[in-house]
Amino acid sequence: MKVNSAKLIKTVYKIEDMPPEDKKEIAFAGRSNVGKSSLLNTLLGIKIAKVSSTPGKTRSINYYLVNDNYYFVDLPGYGFASVSKQEKEKWSYLLDDYFKNRKNLITVILLLDHRHVPQPLDYSMIEWLRELEIPFMFVLTKADKLKNFEKKKKFKEIQISLSNYGEYIYLPFSSKTKEGINLLLKTIGEILGD
Ligand SMILES: Nc1nc2c(ncn2[C@@H]2O[C@H](COP(=O)(O)OP(=O)(O)OP(=O)(O)O)[C@@H](O)[C@H]2O)c(=O)[nH]1
Ligand SMILES: [Mg+2]
Question: Is there a smaller number of Cβ atoms within 10 Å at the N or the C end of the chain?
Fold first, then answer.
């Protein structure tokens, strides 16, 4: 697909504030700091999602309207230590509501750092999505930080570590070099039937 227009239309802190389920949507999930907002900026071609070196930048569910036709959804990241128990609970209630109720959610794109094998919280997310029967695929972020031979090696390691869960799409990606952007847009287009 080609992105012709994108705008932030809603910042959601509670489920009642979600936009109507009138358009197909794709959500981007992953650990805090893995590069969700950067990936969205790269995909959408404009700097609209807030990016920061401080983990936990995105606390809300952010809705981007793409081509006036789809929602791309930036989900708050999980797994950084300095968050209070109360904040973590808020996060899991919000996400639980989101995953259980959004009927127009077609696929979750789960971001993993290309440099590392999945962490316990990534496995929890995978198990959560599987339990709710929400389709998902993986994007491996920050690919620019690895040399080619390391990338090949890590790619295999990541795939092997998740092979018990079944067959999934894994796409290496870099917001810095834009590696993987065309394939990711193509894949999203196919998922949306665009
Ligand atoms: N080298 C490199 N750095 C990246 C890439 N993507 C993101 N970063 C950096 O990683 C940090 C976190 O990026 P964000 O996009 O804010 O991450 P996030 O997943 O949205 O984080 P939360 O909002 O906390 O969940 C920033 O300093 C980015 O500049 C990438 O592809 N390559
Ligand atoms: Mg973010």
Answer: C
